[in-house]
Protein backbone atom coordinates (compact mmCIF):
# COMPACT_ATOMS: atom_id res chain seq x y z
CA UNK A 1 0.00 0.00 0.00
CA UNK A 2 1.37 3.43 -0.91
CA UNK A 3 1.52 6.12 1.73
CA UNK A 4 1.57 9.88 1.24
CA UNK A 5 5.30 9.83 0.51
CA UNK A 6 4.83 7.42 -2.40
CA UNK A 7 6.37 4.47 -0.57
CA UNK A 8 5.07 1.26 -2.16
CA UNK A 9 6.91 -1.21 0.10
CA UNK A 10 4.73 -3.90 1.65
CA UNK A 11 3.34 -3.29 5.09
CA UNK A 12 4.21 -5.29 8.19
CA UNK A 13 1.30 -7.68 7.76
CA UNK A 14 2.26 -8.48 4.18
CA UNK A 15 5.93 -8.97 5.14
CA UNK A 16 4.96 -11.32 7.97
CA UNK A 17 2.69 -13.26 5.63
CA UNK A 18 5.47 -13.57 3.06
CA UNK A 19 7.97 -14.63 5.75
CA UNK A 20 5.57 -17.30 7.06
CA UNK A 21 4.99 -18.62 3.54
CA UNK A 22 8.73 -18.72 2.86
CA UNK A 23 9.38 -20.49 6.19
CA UNK A 24 6.78 -23.16 5.45
CA UNK A 25 8.16 -23.66 1.96
CA UNK A 26 11.76 -23.94 3.22
CA UNK A 27 10.76 -26.53 5.84
CA UNK A 28 8.75 -28.47 3.27
CA UNK A 29 11.67 -28.60 0.84
CA UNK A 30 14.00 -29.78 3.61
CA UNK A 31 11.49 -32.46 4.55
CA UNK A 32 11.06 -33.59 0.94
CA UNK A 33 14.84 -33.85 0.53
CA UNK A 34 15.13 -35.95 3.66
CA UNK A 35 12.00 -38.11 3.46
CA UNK A 36 10.71 -37.84 -0.10
CA UNK A 37 7.31 -36.49 -1.06
CA UNK A 38 5.38 -39.48 0.28
CA UNK A 39 7.34 -39.61 3.53
CA UNK A 40 6.93 -35.92 4.33
CA UNK A 41 3.77 -35.15 6.30
CA UNK A 42 2.04 -31.79 6.36
CA UNK A 43 1.56 -31.93 10.12
CA UNK A 44 5.29 -32.33 10.65
CA UNK A 45 6.05 -29.56 8.14
CA UNK A 46 3.65 -27.27 10.00
CA UNK A 47 5.24 -28.11 13.37
CA UNK A 48 8.77 -27.56 12.03
CA UNK A 49 7.62 -24.23 10.57
CA UNK A 50 6.19 -23.07 13.88
CA UNK A 51 2.61 -22.84 12.60
CA UNK A 52 -0.55 -24.84 13.10
CA UNK A 53 -1.68 -27.26 10.44
CA UNK A 54 -4.70 -25.00 9.81
CA UNK A 55 -2.34 -22.08 9.15
CA UNK A 56 -0.32 -24.21 6.74
CA UNK A 57 -3.54 -24.98 4.84
CA UNK A 58 -4.27 -21.23 4.63
CA UNK A 59 -1.07 -20.88 2.65
CA UNK A 60 -0.98 -24.22 0.80
CA UNK A 61 -4.20 -26.22 0.23
CA UNK A 62 -2.33 -29.53 -0.16
CA UNK A 63 1.14 -31.00 -0.65
CA UNK A 64 1.34 -30.33 -4.40
CA UNK A 65 2.04 -26.56 -4.27
CA UNK A 66 4.68 -27.25 -1.63
CA UNK A 67 6.35 -29.97 -3.67
CA UNK A 68 6.36 -28.12 -6.99
CA UNK A 69 9.20 -25.67 -6.17
CA UNK A 70 11.30 -28.56 -4.83
CA UNK A 71 10.72 -30.66 -7.96
CA UNK A 72 11.53 -27.68 -10.20
CA UNK A 73 14.74 -27.07 -8.24
CA UNK A 74 15.76 -30.70 -8.55
CA UNK A 75 15.13 -30.63 -12.30
CA UNK A 76 17.11 -27.38 -12.68
CA UNK A 77 19.96 -28.87 -10.68
CA UNK A 78 19.99 -32.03 -12.82
CA UNK A 79 19.94 -30.00 -16.04
CA UNK A 80 22.84 -27.85 -14.86
CA UNK A 81 24.82 -30.93 -13.89
CA UNK A 82 24.34 -32.54 -17.29
CA UNK A 83 25.05 -29.39 -19.31
CA UNK A 84 28.13 -28.30 -17.34
Key attributes of the depicted protein:
mainly alpha
Characterization of this structure:
- There is one protein chain.
- It is built from four helices and no strands.
- The chain is mainly alpha-helical and 84 residues long.
- The longest helix has 28 residues, at 12-39.
- The level of helicity is over 70%
Please mark out the parts with pLDDT under 50 across 5 or more consecutive residues, or reply none.
none
- Counting DSSP E segments of at least 2 residues, the number of strands comes to 0
- Rounded average pLDDT: 91
- Sheet with the most strands? none
Q: How are the SSEs ordered, and which strands pair?
A:
Blueprint: H1 12-39, H2 42-49, H3 53-59, H4 64-83
Helix pairs in contact: 1-2, 1-4
In brief:
By secondary structure, the chain is mainly α. Helices cover 75% and strands 0% of the residues.
